[in-house]
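Lab meeting, item 3. Inverse folding demo.
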C-alpha cells in the first residue's frame, strides 16, 4: 500500500516558539534586465518557470533585496555593469515583490554608482554641498524616495540607509575609519538624518546597518562605536556582507563576528545581506576550502547555514546576484558582466544545487513534501523538496531532511 506523506506546519517546526521569523532571499536587482532579455529560468527538471518570484517563493524565499542609486545616468563612470536601478525601476520591482507576499529590503547607495568600503562618491547633483546641506539633502532624498515607494505599493519592510558603510558614506566629509575627513560626527549626522526619514515614512520598517568584513575587527568596532558614542542612532539589524574568499572561513565568521556582535548587541538581529561562492570561477583572490564547482558551492551553502542556524540572533540570509542567468544579456545597449556566484546555470537555465540548499535556512518552511510517496513503515530519507536521499541519514551532508514523517537535522 502506498500513501502520501502530508506534513503539517506544526509537525515540521523544530524551533522554539520564541524564535524570530527568518528571511531568506537574494539581491535580485537585475531580475527585470534578464526578463527583458527573455532568459529562461527553469527548475531542476528543466521546466521553464513563468513566474520567477513565485518559483523563488515555492522554494522558501520570503524576502528580496533591491539596490537604489540616486541617478545612475548622471554621466558618472561605473567600474562595473549593473548600475541601472532608478527610483522608477525600484518602484516597479518592489511592488512585484510585495504583490508576491514577500518582504522587500531596500538598499540605498546614496551615490550615482557602486558604493563599498573603497568608494562612497557623492551623487553628482550633491557635489559642492556643505556638511549641513548634505544632512538636509540625505533626509529629503530618503523621505521623497520612501514616500513614492509607499504610494506605488512598494513599501519596504527593511531599509539599508547606505551600502557597506564600514568606512562611512558621502565622502569625503562622511568618511570614517581612515577615509575622507575621518569624521564620525559628520557620518553620524548623515546616518541619523537618513534614519529619521525612514522612521517618519515607514515606521514599521526595520533599519539595517550594513557593513562588510574585509577587516572583521573594524566591523565589530563600527557597531561598538555606534553603541557607545552615538546611541541616538536607532536601528534593528546588523547586516553583513560575507564572502569566504574575501572574508575567511565560516568558523572565522562565527568566532570573530557573529559571537562578538551577539555579545555586544544582544538586542539586535544579525543578517547576512550578501553572500556567495563561485560554482566554477572564483569570487575574489583569496583562498578557501570550498571547491570551485557546483558541489563546492553547495557545501559552502550547507556549512554556512548549519552555523547560522545555531544562532537565534541570525534572522536573514540573502544571496548576492542569484538571478544572473544567460549569455549575451544586454540593457541599454550594454552587455552585462558575468557574475561568478550565480545560482543558475548559464547554459541550461537550471538552478545549481545551492539554490535548493538555501531553504534549509528556514526550518519552518514547508515545501512540496506532500508530493513525496513512501511505503508504510519505510525509513527512507527525503530532502525538503521531495527527493529520495536513501536510507542512511548519517551518510548525507549536514542539513534538514524528512524521515518517518518528521523533520530531522543531520
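The presenter then showed the designed sequence:
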Amino acid at each position: 500500500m502506498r500513501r502520501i506523506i502530508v506534513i503539517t506546519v506544526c509537525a515540521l517546526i523544530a524551533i522554539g516558539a520564541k524564535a524570530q521569523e527568518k528571511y531568506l532571499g537574494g539581491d535580485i536587482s537585475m531580475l527585470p534586465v534578464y526578463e527583458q532579455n527573455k532568459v529562461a529560468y527553469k527548475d531542476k527538471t528543466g521546466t521553464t518557470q513563468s513566474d520567477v518570484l513565485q518559483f523563488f517563493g515555492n522554494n522558501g524565499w520570503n524576502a528580496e533585496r533591491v539596490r537604489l542609486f540616486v541617478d545612475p545616468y548622471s554621466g558618472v563612470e561605473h567600474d562595473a555593469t549593473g548600475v541601472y536601478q532608478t527610483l522608477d525601476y525600484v518602484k516597479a520591482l518592489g511592488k512585484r515583490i510585495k504583490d508576491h507576499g514577500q518582504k522587500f529590503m531596500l538598499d540605498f547607495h546614496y551615490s550615482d554608482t557602486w558604493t563599498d568600503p573603497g568608494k562612497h562618491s557623492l551623487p553628482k547633483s550633491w557635489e559642492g554641498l556643505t556638511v549641513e546641506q548634505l544632512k538636509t539633502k540625505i533626509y529629503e532624498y530618503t523621505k521623497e524616495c520612501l514616500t513614492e515607494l509607499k504610494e506605488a505599493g512598494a513599501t519596504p519592510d527593511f531599509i539599508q540607509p547606505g551600502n557597506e558603510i564600514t568606512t562611512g558614506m558621502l565622502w569625503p566629509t562622511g568618511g570614517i575609519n581612515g577615509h575622507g575627513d575621518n569624521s564620525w560626527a559628520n557620518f553620524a549626522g548623515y546616518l541619523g538624518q537618513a534614519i529619521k526619514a525612514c522612521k517618519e515614512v515607514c515606521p514599521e520598517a526595520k533599519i539595517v546597518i550594513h557593513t562588510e568584513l574585509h577587516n572583521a575587527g573594524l566591523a565589530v568596532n563600527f557597531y561598538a562605536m555606534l553603541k557607545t558614542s552615538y546611541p541616538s542612532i536607532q536601528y534593528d539589524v546588523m547586516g553583513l556582507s560575507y564572502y569566504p574568499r574575501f572574508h575567511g572561513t565560516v568558523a572565522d565568521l562565527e568566532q570573530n563576528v557573529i559571537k562578538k556582535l551577539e555579545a555586544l548587541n544582544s538586542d539586535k538581529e544579525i543578517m547576512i545581506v550578501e553572500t556567495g561562492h563561485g560554482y566554477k570561477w572564483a569570487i575574489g583572490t583569496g583562498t578557501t576550502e570550498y571547491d570551485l564547482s557546483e558541489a563546492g558551492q553547495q557545501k559552502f551553502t550547507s556549512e554556512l547555514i548549519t552555523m547560522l542556524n545555531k544562532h537565534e540572533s541570525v534572522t536573514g540570509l540573502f544571496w548576492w546576484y542569484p538571478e544572473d542567468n544567460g549569455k549575451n544579456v544586454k540593457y541599454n545597449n550594454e552587455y552585462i558582466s558575468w557574475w561568478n556566484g550565480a545560482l543558475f546555470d548559464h547554459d541550461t537555465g537550471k538552478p545549481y544545487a545551492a539554490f535548493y540548499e538555501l531553504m534549509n535556512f528556514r526550518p519552518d518552511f514547508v515545501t512540496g513534501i506532500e508530493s513525496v510517496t513512501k511505503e508504510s513503515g519505510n525509513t527512507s530519507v527525503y530532502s525538503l523538496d521531495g527527493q529520495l536521499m536513501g536510507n542512511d541519514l548519517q551518510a548525507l551532508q549536514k542539513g534538514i531532511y524528512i524521515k518517518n514523517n518528521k523533520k530531522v537535522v543531520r
